[in-house]
Write a structure and sequence with these properties.
5 strands; 22% strand; alpha/beta; 5-stranded parallel β-sheet
Length: 130
Amino acid sequence: MIELIYGAKGTGKTQRIIEKANKKVEETKGNVVFITPVDKYSLDISNNIRFVVTAEYGISKACGLAAFIKGMIAGNSDISDFYIDGMARIGEIDPVEFIPVLDDISTRYNVNFTVTVSMAEVPAKLKRYI
């Protein structure tokens, strides 16, 4: 399953995804991963969540992020949920093209994704994830 949190810059998307991740880690038996391009919110994330800063791993392209996520799943089959904040800021990642890739990963490995993207309107290709 993919859940898309969208809105213009400064509309509270990051705070919403942090709240969702912190709530999920209390409810789930699986592991939760929070992926972000910056280390700015590490103190707001529960210490029971695996906090990943993409810059520390040299992730800057969609194929790199997809491979990184698959590698995390391969190393820990107990991961149930990924939260990705600011996907477009990670690097050369187009959310319109990458979110369907996450949908394939979600289906194949039975994991959930919640993603924030800064956009005023959601393109038709992504409307099913709202």
